[in-house]
Design goal:
The chain is mainly α. 71% of the residues lie in helices and 0% in strands. The protein has one domain (5-76).
Length: 94
């Protein structure tokens, strides 16, 4: 059975439709991935802002202006200079 002209047209049409389907599928996947990436970037920015706020709150809570009144309410006192011992930090092992 010889392949006639209309058969070739049908084969080329099917090949074109298959290629077009692949292009549409890849484009759709790319758009979906881009949307997910955008959402991840927004979430990251939000989390970084939250982290900065928490770090600021920790620094504020650890300041002398906050700790000294709390220590005095608990009956604690400030140590004298001779009572303070500085311990050297260990170097990180490599």
């Amino acid at each position: 059975m010889a392949v006639r002209g209309r058969h070739w047209v049908a084969i080329w049409l099917l090949a074109f439709l298959a290629a077009a389907g692949v292009v549409v599928a890849r484009t759709t996947a790319g758009l979906r991935l881009a949307r997910a990436l955008g959402e991840a970037r927004v979430a990251q920015a939000s989390l970084e802002g939250r982290r900065a706020d928490l770090e600021r709150r920790v620094r504020a809570a650890g300041s002398r202006t906050v700790l000294v009144p709390r220590a005095q309410r608990l009956g604690l006192r400030l140590p004298s200079d001779s009572e303070i011992v500085l311990l050297p930090a260990r170097e990180a092992r490599r």
